[in-house]
Amino acid sequence: MKISQNNKRSLLYTAVILAVIVLDQFTKQLAIEHLKPIDTFPIIPDALHLTYVTNYGAAFGMLADHRWIFLAVSTIAIVLMAAYLYYKRDEHPVLGVALSFIIGGGAGNMIDRTLMGYVVDFVDFRLINFAVFNVADIFVCVGCGLMFLWLFKFAEFDDEKKPAAPAVSEQNEASDDASDR
Fold first, then answer.
1. Which end of the chain is more exposed for a tag (fewer CB within 10 A), N or C?
2. Range of 96's domain?
């Protein structure tokens, strides 16, 4: 039995999504087991620490008391992106990887919100006093970056497929030629 190119891509993107979820959940479990008891571990003092944080809100802890909103919005967004990925799986692979990263990262954080009521964050980049984040957040951000790359470098829009309209001077010449007859 031969697997079609579209099915190969679907399987590849599904594997990427699952790998992102597994990596995210694995690193969060390590953070719970090893960082929660000690609070923080400096990798590069005052620059990069591993710090256990529970985030009850969205990005940067915003809207912490509205968990049901995040679950609903996340579910809808993940389903819509997955459907789009399935129907556009024959597009440029950068789009497929971008959507796979975003879906996997979103699902990883949604699993935390569903099971624990909060998201576990642990990457603490203190050099610029940035918010603490996790592996799922990294994949969502990289996926968004890849999406912009695809959009500006590889995407084909309908306007590019349509033949260019003749310039005004060409239209005037054509009408002049017709009136000369």
1. N
2. 5-180
Q: Which residue has the tokens 């959507």?
A: 99
Q: 33-74 pLDDT, tens per residue?
A: 998 989 889 999 888 889 999 988 665 555 556 667 777 888
Report whether pLDDT(148) > 60.
Answer: yes
Tokens of 24: 């995210």
Instruction: Report residue 162: phi and psi, to 5°.
Output: -80, 145
Nearest to 21 by CA among 89, 112, 144: 112
Q: Going by C-beta distance under 8 Å and a sequence separation of 6 or more, which residues neighbour residue 33?
A: none
- Using CA atoms in the order 146, 148, 151, 154, what is the torsion angle rounded to 10 degrees? -40
C-alpha span between 20 and 100 (Å, rounded) = 8
> Which letter does DSSP use for residue 169 in this model?
H
Domain total in the chain: 1
Could you list the active site residues? 121, 137
The sign of the torsion formed by the CA atoms of 124, 130, 132, 137 equals negative
pTM: 0.78
Instruction: Find out whether 50 and 40 touch, Cβ atoms under 8 Å.
Output: yes
